[in-house]
Amino acid sequence: MSETNLDRRDFLTKSSIGLAGLAIAPGMLLFDMAHARPLGEAASNKVRWGMLIDNNKCETGCNDCVTACNTENGLSGGTKPTDSQWIRKVQLKDTFTGRVSSLPMMCQHCENPPCVDVCPTQASFKRADGIVLVDKHICIGCRYCVMACPYQARSFVHEVLHDQKPEVPRGKGTVESCTLCVHRIDKGDTTACAEACTKAGHKAILFGDLNDPESEISKRIRTVTSTQIRADLGLNTGVRYEGI
Amino acid sequence: MASSAFSRNESRYFYALVALGLFVVLLGYLGMHAMEEHGHIITGMNNQIVWGIPHVFAIFMIVAASGVLNIGSIGTVFGKVPYKARAPMSGLLAIALLSGGLAVLMLDLGRPDRIIVAATYFNPTSVFAWNIFLYSGFFTLAAIYIWTMMEKRINPWSKPVGFLMFAWRVLLTSGTGLIFAFLVVRQAYASALLPPMFIVLSFAWGLAVFLIVQSAMYTWNGRGLDPAILKRMKNLLGVFIISSLYLVATYHLTNLYFAKQTGFEHFILRDGGIYPTIFWAGYVLLGSLLPLALIYFPGMGNTKAVVSASLLVILGSFALLYVFIIGGQAYPLSIFPGYEVSSSFGDGQIGKYIPSLPEILLGFGGLAIAFLITIVSTRVLKSLPLDVAVVTPKNDA
User: Fold this and answer.
1) pLDDT at B74 (0 to 100)
2) Rounded to a whole number, what is the distance in Å from the CA of A188 to chain B's nearest CA?
3) CATH topology of domain B28-336+343-380
4) Which of residues 22-51 of A touch B (CB under 8 A)?
5) I need a labelling partner for B176 at 20 to 30 A (CA). Which of B8, B199, B302, B331 fits?
């Protein structure tokens, strides 16, 4: 009897460790993949965050990435011309062939961002890991960056905001755009849009480190044809598209 | 009789004008305050048309500021005597217009309270940041320029300072043109022609402002302008209007030649609703051809005709800037050439903009600041141009 009990205990112990391991492992793996930085350590240019968006997998009519972005960043979700939209679905129709498709459009996190060049106060800046951000404390709201952005990715906060998310600072009279969910990335997580797209089963948005040759995104852009939108501008975008 | 009654009450009229100017400044303040309180939601501006009517006012004043200084430069740098007498007034007007323009530009910011940040965080790659430097230099130089002309002991310095001022104003207007010329993705703007175009436009706009102010001052003081000088100045305005038309035409014609730009040009010149109307009727017809007729048509060219022509040139400048700034943004960005696009964020659609009262008030508030500085400084500093051999007791009007 007692021997049996010991076996049972042993089995429970070992299986719970195994289960715990199974539960933690993907997280640990993600943590490793995403190179989460310890708190207090500066972002490094060894990493370049980016996304690969597969136009063929992006379903027309699905808006999950947009909804997830709005929820994550505390945006109203309104679509008036004065509302902020950090990510939007663009419907495309080839004027020659008539092919119809759609894709999500957001800040392309350029290596040579025009918004950073034109900003008079350096409020628009590029972090060492390639994320283009706006420093809410020094943006004077001149909107020159909105004029300069080739992707219409920036929004100006036209009115007083309420119920903001503490981890996503925003402010009336300043400019804002997709932060590549920097608050999540710094914790080793993926972006809200990529997560929502995967959850919806489309897996059209692949997020990762473009500088790591072993990352999934790097492997993929080595094997498939990907394009940068308005590649002619020579901006070397961090967001790339497949299938357009 | 009438003129003696005027001189008795001259001071009253002056204070009435000051009060009028202050009232418009107050209205401008109320407009700005409402925008500050509620945000830009109460303006017509949005995420597609991010610069609106305040920028039309501001850029007019900034460009005209450097243009009006041209009068001084023709005297100081190029040695033309009649213009030398006008140099102090041109300097004062330049300061007045730049003050008004910058006030509007700054008060339209999303966070005007942070304007000091523009001085403490300087981005060397930003033409906006260069302009902050160019504007402050312009103020300083214009003040020194006026000082060298008004203070006899340092008169010899007026020539070198005038030279520097001339170079500076060319740079300043180039900087204004470059704000747009550097916008590589905007079909309306990315053109190296814009800095020289703005410089030539500044000549016309600045001279138009100068002619109006000069005429008002002469009338105010019961004096007449020497017809020979009037003829010189109106002919110069004619040349500037023609040069402006030439550069604006060149800008549109070169664009029309590039297949990727024809959509935009058709929009601005033909299909874009109010924008082609404002361009052809406002800028070309009323703002250029009619003034040219008033200047050159036989029997025209008297003071009234020249002042009317100048007012029309200013009207035309607002028309041109409205089409250039707002029409230029209304046309959608070409993000996916070869595709028809649509989205919830205005992709592929013509942007909509209707200016609201607060932003219009802000613009007029800026003009009122320029007006106030002009009337107060010209009175205090006695900058009325006095031509040496004036014999005509009354003007030729």
Assistant:
1) 92
2) 31
3) Formate dehydrogenase/DMSO reductase fold (1.20.1630)
4) none
5) B331
